[in-house]
Structure formats: structure tokens, C-alpha cells
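Researcher: Next entry in the queue.
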Amino acid sequence: GGSHFCISPHHASMGNICSSGAGAEEELPVPEEVVHLTDVNLEGADDVLIDIRRQLLDAIEQRWKGNGLEAVQTLRSVEMSLEYDYPETDPRLEKLKQAIKTDPQLDAIKKDFEAMRSFDRAANSASLKDKRRSRQRVSQLVISDEKLTKEQRDQAIEQMEIKLSTLDDVEDDRAFKLSENADDFLGTKWRSSITIAKTMTDSGRDKMATMDYDLATGSLSDPVPALEQIREGILYLAARFRIFEAVEELSSLKVDVGTVQKLVLHDDGFAFADGLFQFSVSMSNHPQIQKLEKIHERMLAACELSDPAQTQGAGDPNDARWVEISLNASFGSKFQLWMRKLEGMEVDAKAPTTQVILKFEMEDIPIAPSQLLAINRETDLFKASYLQDCKLSEGAVGGSQQLFSSLIHQVVTPMLLPSIRLESHSIREFSKCDVCPLKGVDRGSGVLMVETKIDGSVSDFEGFRMFKPQGVDLRGTVCMYLTPHKGALDKTDVVGFAKLMVPVSDWVPFAMWKAALESLVDKSLTKMKEEIMEKWGQTGYQERIDSKSELYDAVKGIARTAEVQRLQSSK
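Model: Structure for this entry, 571 residues:
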């Protein structure tokens, strides 16, 4: 029989932070009754049913002792026994099945199993090129170099790559499939290689027979310590604003873990099966890894704002959809801002009423990229007086657990719209990029900053304690890409995009919004120039940069690299 775990994916849902308008309601599913295994009354039941509960209690105990893989195998064995071996005549059976389905401690075992499966899926869904690279990396990890000569080791690595390639071929042919249910496919693979061999096609069995290599004087090394080092390297990158690099390495690591699991399926890696299982679970539950993936997801979504299909016509005087915001402030050599209302299929019916998209470009800003980054990241230093019509500005700066993102809460009452009190709860996240991730934007290496407006009614957000709401919640996303100005390390160029949704009725004319935005932006730039840039030594930002050199040095390096590239290209 196949696997009969009652498991559903447990992926954390980010949701659409910009889609909940006033009055929008969604019907919530009725929660299923939770039955604890210890509450199931088996008085008078036969010995088989009592033994099944004992095995389940053993599985829970095994997990608490750190034997997660054994706990998974025990639970799966019970599920199959109930499915095939036990007649559904005892009325207490249904209660026991409900406990298996809903007991929190048994559910934790199922989540562990799902964590293991996620790496298997990553390996199976990888491209042929990525699979080949993973086989090369894993072969080098598991072949010990202590007892083998270099020639023997090279030969063993080559044989291991061939074997892993054969395993991929067998999986692609579905020769391992033991169940009609495709969802059960992965669950069947934690069986012995003898059981699996009996189910192979003739061609598959012949392939495997010829690939039983002999390492003679060597044995497989435990790859888990090396995998742990790779994970630490990923966290190192993530904690230094290198989100895209970290996610790329994380994707490779997931495929490698799935590739190593293939060895466990064939008895070759049973010695490190438990360690690999624990690593898989810890990886899936690691708070910084989870945070990294959420940040990356938000960044990818923000980069979609730069899609030329959405921004086409910005700056074109013949495109009546766009209006240009006129500015008088002296803030660099160029500052252009365009805005238009969303229309047709672009409009989110569940989001607040007034919805706009913006594009802006700034050149020659008289401040270095690292300084502009600090102004945006060190939100606890930003004062309300730095922003026009701002009544409140408070922030919190995240540490390593939040991958050095930050939270900012601001309340603004535009002078031209005094009856409207706009409030913004935003999470700001940053990434150093070697290549600009914005669509249709070629700016070279720089820093991506994404500001995501979040629901102010929640009490906390990914480790941040939220500030008390005080106005009308602004929703949406802002992304900016910062690059050093050509020929000047102490100046910055910026290109940015924003999608904002304001819960204010359409009775406010678009022309009034334009006038309010012109006044707000123009005067805010003047304030920032006078209060921050011209009084830089008094703001506390430089002290913060100096105290967190491991973060800001990477950004300073972008400017130095850009200058070297400029000088080389001018020769």
C-alpha cells in the first residue's frame, strides 16, 4: 500500500496586505473540533485498537526525545494499519481517527514530515541544469577524503554523480510510485531499498544493479555539518542586505537537501538519516529563513510595479492619464514625479477607494547612498518635523531576527486636505543588488528599498510590536532603487515606483490630490535638506552608520565599485 498520511500543506500565507477595504468581509472556515489522543476513551476496546493508541503515544514521545524520523515512521505505520488492517466496526475508531487528524502533538509530527517533503519537491522540480549542479555538490559532500587517495576520491565522486543521475531518471519515470494518489508519492519513499526495488520497472532495476559502485576503502561522509555551514552562510548574506543572493543560495541548498535524501532512500545514507531529517525540520522552522523568504516575496511583488505595462506613458505629455507633479525645491539636479489613477482591471475591488500608481526619478541628490539608506532604515531617528504636515513619526529598528528591516508609523494631515488624517504603518526592507531587479530599469548595482504598508489594526507583525492606530489607514507598496551618482561617491540617484490606496471617497477631485501631493513633497524635500542634510552631524544618523558598519559597508562598496567601473570605462 501507499502512504496514507492525512497531511495538507502548511505554507504560511502572506495574504494581500493591500486588499482589505472598509467593510470588506471574508467568510472564515469553521474550525474543526480538536480531539486530543489522551481524551479518547477506549475502555472495553479490543487489544488492536489499544495497541494503536500506544503506538501513537510512542510517536509523540519519540518526537520529544529528538527521534523525529522514527516518530514519522510510526505514525505512518498506524495510518496504514487503520486503513487496511482494522475493520471499521468499532464506534470508538472514528474518535481515534479524529484525534489522529487534529491532536496538536500528532499534527506537529505531520508538519515535520511536510518539512522533509518540501525539500524533496524542491529537488524534483529543479531544472535539469540545477539538478546536475546539485549532484556535483552533493557527491563532493558525501565522499570522504580521509581514507581515499585523490584519484580514488575523484573516481568515487564520479560514480556518485552517475548514481544520483540514475536515481533522478528513475524518479522521472515514476518507477518509485507505489500509489494511485500522486500526493502519496513522496510519502512512500521512506521505505527500504528492498521494498522499492520490488516495484521498479525491469529497465529501472537493471540500471540500479549496474550502478552499485564499490568505494572499497571509503564510506559516505555525513553531509549535515556541511549543510549547516551553508545555511549559516545564507544567514550571513541575509543579515547584510544581500537578500537576493541569500535566496539564490537557499534555493540551491533546498535542492541539495532533497538530493541527499535520495541516498537515504537507498540505504546508502541511513547512517545520517536522523541528522538529515532534523536538519530539514529545523530549516523549515528557522525564523530567519522564514523571514528571508517573506522579504524576498514582498520584494518580487514590489518590483512588479516597475512593469512597463503599468508605467507606460509616464512623462509623455500626450498621455492624458498621467499628471506630472511640479516641484520647486532644490533637491539635486533632477526630480520628476508622475501619477495616474488605476483603472479597469487594475483596480482592486476589495481595496480602499482611491487607488493611484506613481513613478519618480531623482538625480544628483546631495547625500551618499549609505546616508540615504540610513535615513530610511533608522526609523527611530526620523522626526515628524522632517516631513511636511506630519503630526507623528515613530519607528522601530529590527535586529538579526528581522534581518535588519524596520517599522515606521506616521500620521500626516495634508494642508490642502485638512479633514483627512492619513496614517501609514509600514515595514521597510532592503537588499544590495548587483543587478537592478526592476523591470525595464538598467541602473547597475545598487540598493533596493521596499516599503510595504501593513494593516495597522494588528498587534504585531513578524516580530515587530505595532504602534497604536490613530487615523485613516493608507495601504500599498513603495519601492526605490538607490545608486551612486556617476562621478560622485557622495551623491545618489533614485528611481522609484509606488502603488497607493487611500480609503477616502471619490468626492475628492483628482486635481486636489495632485495639488496636495505637490505641496507635501515639495515642502518635505526642503525640510529634509535643511533639517537632515545640512545638519547631518546633529541627527544621529552618522553614529548609527558607524555602529553598524557590517551593514552599511556593503552599501559603501557599491559606490566604490561604481567609481572604479566608471574610471575603467573612461580609459
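Model: Residues 484 and 559 are 5 Å apart (CA to CA).
Researcher: Noted, moving on.
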